[in-house]
Amino acid sequence: MKIETAKVIVCSPGRNFVTLKIHTDQGVYGIGDATLNGREHAVVAYLEEHVIPCLIGMDPRRIEDIWQYLYRGAYWRRGPVTMRAIAAVDMALWDIKAKMAGMPLYDLLGGKSRDRVMVYGHANGSDIDETVEAVGHYIDMGYKAIRAQTGVPGIKDAYGVGRGKLYYEPADAALPSVTGWETRKALNYVPKMFEKLRATYGFDHHLLHDGHHRYTPQEAANLGKMLEPYQLFWLEDCTPAENQEAFKLVRQHTVTPLAVGEIFNTIWDAKDLIQNQLIDYIRCTIVGAGGITHMRRIADLAALYQVRTGSHGATDLSPVTMGCALHFDTWVPNFGIQEYMRHTEETDAVFPHDYRFEDGHLICGETPGHGVDIDEDLAAKYPYKPAYLPVARLEDGTMWNW
Ligand code: KDG
Ligand code: MG
């Protein structure tokens, strides 16, 4: 069996997506996601110029060997561009293998560990009252777990506050828009939101919060401590994690569960955090961390230390990643939760899929493969539109982490 052709499809049905389609000489094809928000064409070039020429003629059944070829064989390892390209190939090859086996992907991975996958949605508002109302809508829709973000008085466009309600997409301008940040103001405001949320809705639902890399370790420890009475499911990306040791200080001072990993690319980014039990949830996902083959290694390492998965699932990960993630979540023994930011109707139409939302959970389908396809004719009607994520500056103009 041979890989005959492979092509990259770029489309923008509401937002930009990069998709890889691999055809075999046996008529079976597979689909992979290679979307890197705001840097899409870097991955397109990497795939078209440096990966696809090597793939032609290879045996698509040798998923592990092809992964090692693309990772070790490049000599230059890791990084968001390389690992997304590898992830796209890996997803497409698992799709092909599962289709050939006539099995839904979760079966090929080892079978179901659960019937459905708990997801969390994003509730947000321009102030506490609006966010409290938005959380109520999510509860009404059946969600068991809800991430709550609020605008903060005096901060221009605080992270996580969308314009639309269900379809929040932060990459919104042809050049990066400039947003603001002031930690003091956020530290004064965010705990009050959780106080009101618990006073309004009680403690039956899981509540989550994303610090989006804004706090220093000391500030993050302070926030985690202030949030303890509200029993969060997790506090995410409370401080940048390039220095994995930074989490020691946070961990020493708070029992609020910690989650990190959406910008990690490999097991090496997470190794010390996991082995030192500095986090509770590892949030890498299939497209960001080298595909199913590598995510399996991360999850297995995490399982040794009672760290559970919490796969990133923002709108910039296409339905192809969501499909793969849901099969992975259905199999992985140490599953925690799955993020679910809904795609637009246009996106869902371009990527027909068989997963569905029910009672606060996503359920993956039974179609052989990962269950997500691409309608190429429809995709062609949505050409690429440059869109960057915003940047953030402090009040005095200092560049900060968005
Ligand atoms: O493209 C950036 C988004 O994926 C990110 O801002 C979303 O932090 C995020 C989350 O937790 O979904
Ligand atoms: Mg996040």
UniProtKB/TrEMBL annotation:
Keywords (A to Z) from UniProt: Carbohydrate metabolism, Lyase, Magnesium, Metal-binding
Mandelate racemase/muconate lactonizing enzyme C-terminal domain span: 128-257
Cofactor: Mg(2+)
Native source organism of the sequence: Novosphingobium endophyticum
UniProt-recorded name of the protein: D-mannonate dehydratase
Similarity comment: Belongs to the mandelate racemase/muconate lactonizing enzyme family. GalD subfamily.
Catalytic activity, as annotated: D-mannonate = 2-dehydro-3-deoxy-D-gluconate + H2O
SMART domains according to UniProt: MR_MLE
Domain of life according to the entry: Bacteria
